[in-house]
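To whoever is covering the structure queue this week,

Two jobs came back overnight. Logging them here so there's a record in the thread.

Job A:
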Amino acid sequence: AGGGAGSGPVLRGMAGTLLLVLALPVLALPLLAAAERELRFRPPAEAPVRLFTEPELARYDGQQEGQPIYLAVKGVVFDVTSGKEFYGKGAPYNALVGKDSTRGVAKMSLDPADLTHDITGLTEEELQSLDDIFNNVYKAKYPIVGYTSRRILNEDGSPNLDFKPEDQPHFNIKDEF
């Protein structure tokens, strides 16, 4: 009789646990749905930052069919392949690609002397134009694939501790297809 009395609470305890385990999926459905929504709408993990030297960036100048087309502005390398009618071989802005063309973008110039990262001597209006085009055209429309070595490294080759990757709050990969 002693064993029977002792087994009663254990069975009731196990039955309660079994009931809880059976009820758990029903109770957890709202939590699982919320977790699934969060995962579905979470931005993708950031791609690793790729460093481009000038010779590496020059390989993406739009001259080879099937090769991505890259353009750097303010040391940020954008994949402008989806705009190949503007940046591809023989296209009107092809001179800008395969290099950091910050000055050319600021001055709205395709002069080879302006196709450089150097912004020395630009006017306030040109600097404002550069920021506007950088944010409202390139960052809004094209994915960032990396950064120029000038953006990530100091002149002596040491890491730039102030480097912060750009974000793209308005970029949506679906817009590219």
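Job B:
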Amino acid sequence: HGWSEALAGIKSPHVKYICPHAPVMPVSLNMNMAMPSWFDIIGLSPDSQEDEVGIKQAAENVKALIDQEVKNGIPSNRIILGGFSQGGALSLYTALTTQQKLAGVVALSCWLPLRASFPQGPISGVNKEIAVLQCHGDCDPLVPLMFGSLTVEKLKSMINPANITFRTYSGMMHSSCIE
């Protein structure tokens, strides 16, 4: 609900916005307490174990949303995925693994999950020319700017670097700002 409210002030009337909710599940990092989460988070360091099964299942769920919109008459190449934190991570992963050609990704304060599973060098999929807007606060204590920097460098090796925009925001923590 928070993101749909945030988008209300900048929505274009000719654009359909879908803001799905992450399911509630136990999260290892949260002492296994249930919270909204697209997949389990085991740790916050670059070498932390990742929930590969959960990430792949969450990506399939997003792909099902894309498929539904295509069935509703929206060409996939007019669909942009976006998200904040885990949602941004899921958006990047989904865009790089789907067989549907997408228009772009907005990835806020996030990282690329399962980055080691991607090939070294350019991907061969339909989204090798996808546009990516990646934004990150330079004071983010939860998903440090280093994660964003590592992600943008990995993306530049996988997709057309000319289509990647990486912006940082001075003083911003794990949140968003009007810019």
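Note for Job B: The domain at 24-169 is CATH 3.40.50.1820 (Rossmann fold).

Please reply-all if you pick these up so we don't duplicate work.
Q.
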